[in-house]
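seq:
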Amino acid sequence: QVQLVESGGGLVQAGGSLRLSCVASGRTFSRATMGWFRQGPGKEREFVAAFSWTSGSTHYADSVKGRFTISRDSPKNTIDLQMTSLKPEDTAVYYCAARNAPIISTMRQAYDSWGQGTQVTVSS
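struct:
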């Protein structure tokens, strides 16, 4: 039922920063968990970060911990992913996802709403 639209992807040099945004509509998100996944060339779609609107808890994949930060803007029903110290290995299509549950999950099958994705390319 929720509509998700990502933006902010682009080309950046290694070591640089980029901010992705995901705007959600059609739901109050009172008990929702939202997250970011990514899929690089020849790779499976993998978990990046997630945020629980109910508890405020966050969780990050080990590969991005300390470099990426997920945050929310409640009045705008928006979540952001601030990416710093970017590496060529971060090159992927990044997807915003949501599920109607208060507990964070790292499994893509647990999420039932997805955006169309935004391309992030990190050059070396």
